[in-house]
Write a structure and sequence with these properties.
Order of helices and strands: HHHHHEEHHHHHHHHH
Distance between the termini: 37 Å
Strand content: under 5%
Helix content: 55-70%
Number of helices: 14
Strand order of the largest sheet: 1-2
Structural class: mainly alpha
Number of strands: 2
C-alpha cells in the first residue's frame, strides 16, 4: 500500500524513490512484522490463556516430558498471520495478483488450522477437524490459488515444470500442472504441520526457507539477474520478497514467545498457513523441486510418518520408536533442546544445498 501511495511521487520528491526498491520494502516488512508481534504478543498470550483454560491437549502416548506443557495456550499462529498479512499489505505492491493469491493461501489455510485448533480445545482431544474436511477445504482454497497463479504467470510458464540444475529445461504439463501445484501447496502445508511438535522446531526452519525464497523471488523477478543465472523470469514475482521478509519478521517475533519453555504454541493455525504459503511461493517462482530441498527437514518428518504407518500396517512392526522422527530421538534420550537445535542445523545445511541450485545450472 505504501508503494502504491508514495512510489508515484518519486519523480517530484526523491525521498519517495526509496519505495521503488524491493530491498527497502522487504526490510521494512521484516521490521514491521517483528514489531507487531512484540506489541500484540503479551496481550494475545494472556487473552488466549484465559479463553482456553487448560490449553492445547497433550497426547497421552507422547513423550512424558511433554505432559508438563499442559496449560500452554495454542493458536499462536494468529500472531504470525496478523503480523505477516498486515505487514505485507502495508509494504507490498497491492496491485500484484501474486500478493493476493499468497495471502489467500495463508489466510485460508490459517482458517482451516484455526477450526482444527478450536475443535481440539472444545472437545478436549488431539484429533480436531476430521481429516476429510481438512483436505476438502485445502483443495478448494489451494485449487483456487493454483489456478489464479497459473493465470498470473507468463504464457510460456503457466503450465510448465522447471527442473533444478538444468537451464532452459521446461516440461509442459498442461492442465495436470494445476493438480501438481495443488499437491505442492497441500503437501508443504501438512509437512510443516507434522514438524510442529517441539518448542521452536518448526518456526526457525520456516524462517530459513522464507529467507531462501525471498532471495529466489528477488532474482526470478529481475530480468537481469534471472538471465545471468539462467533462471526462468517471472515478471512481478519479486513482490513476494516483501512477503518473505514479513514472514521472517513474524517468525522471529513469534519465536521470542515460543522459545523453550514456550509461552504459546502456534497450533495448526500457524503451521498449516506457513507451509501452504511456502508451497505457493515455490509454484509462483517455478521452484517446486527446490522447495523439497530447502524444506528437506519437513520432507524428512513427513516421510518418517509415512514409513511408520506403512510398516506397521504391512508388518505390524514400527521402524521408529515414535513418529514424526523428532519424537523418535526424544524417545532415544535426546533432550528437547538438543533435537531442536540439531534439526535447525540440518535445515540450514539443506537450505544452502537448495540455494546452490541457483548457480549450478
Amino acid at each position: 500500500m505504501l508503494y502504491n501511495i508514495f512510489a508515484p511521487l518519486g519523480a517530484e520528491y526523491h525521498i519517495f524513490n526509496l519505495f521503488q526498491y524491493l530491498t527497502f520494502r522487504t526490510g521494512g516488512a521484516t521490521l514491521t512484522a517483528l514489531l507487531i508481534c512484540f506489541v500484540i504478543g503479551p496481550g494475545m498470550i494472556d487473552w488466549l490463556r484465559v479463553r482456553q483454560g487448560k490449553g492445547q491437549p497433550i497426547r497421552d502416548d507422547g513423550p512424558q516430558t511433554h505432559l508438563k506443557k499442559q496449560g500452554t495456550p495454542t493458536m499462536g499462529g494468529l500472531m504470525i498471520l496478523l503480523s505477516v498479512m498486515t505487514s505485507t499489505l502495508l509494504w507490498a505492491d497491492i496491485s500484484s495478483p501474486f500478493v493476493w493469491y499468497a495471502l489467500l493461501v495463508m489466510g485460508g489455510f490459517g482458517a482451516i488450522g484455526f477450526a482444527d485448533d478450536f475443535l481440539k480445545l472444545t472437545k478436549r482431544n488431539s484429533k480436531g477437524l476430521p481429516g476429510r474436511y481438512k483436505i476438502l477445504f485445502q483443495i478448494l482454497i489451494g485449487g483456487t490459488a493454483t489456478l489464479g497463479i497459473m493465470m498470473a504467470l507468463p504464457d510460456n510458464l503457466s503450465s510448465h515444470l522447471a527442473l533444478p540444475f538444468f537451464k532452459g529445461v521446461l516440461f509442459n504439463l498442461g492442465w495436470f500442472f494445476g493438480i501438481f501445484g495443488l499437491f505442492v501447496i497441500i503437501g508443504a502445508s501438512n509437512a510443516v504441520n507434522l514438524t510442529d511438535g517441539l518448542d521452536g522446531l518448526a518456526i526457525v526452519p520456516v524462517a530459513i526457507a522464507a529467507g531462501c525464497f525471498g532471495l529466489i523471488c528477488y532474482l526470478v523477478g529481475n530480468s537481469m539477474f534471472s538471465s545471468y543465472l539462467h533462471l526462468h523470469y517471472v515478471p512481478g514475482v519479486g513482490e513476494m520478497a516483501v512477503l518473505c521478509g514479513a514472514l521472517i519478521g513474524g517468525a522471529m517475533g513469534f519465536l521470542w514467545f515460543n522459545a523453550p519453555p514456550a509461552m504459546i504454541f502456534m497450533g495448526d493455525t500457524g503451521s498449516l498457513a506457513m507451509g501452504g504459503l511456502l508451497g505457493a511461493l515455490s509454484v509462483m517462482t517455478k521452484h517446486e523441486f527446490v522447495l523439497a530441498i530447502i524444506g528437506g527437514l519437513f520432507v524428512l518428518e513427513t516421510v518418517s510418518v509415512i514409513v511408520q504407518v506403512a510398516s506397521f500396517k504391512l508388518t505390524g512392526k514400527r521402524v521408529f520408536r515414535m513418529a514424526p522422527i523428532h519424537h523418535h530421538f526424544e524417545q532415544k534420550g535426546w533432550s528437547e533442546s538438543t533435537v531442536v537445535i540439531r534439526f535447525w542445523i540440518i535445515a540450514m545445511i539443506l537450505a544452502l544445498v537448495g540455494l546452490s541450485t541457483l548457480k549450478l545450472r
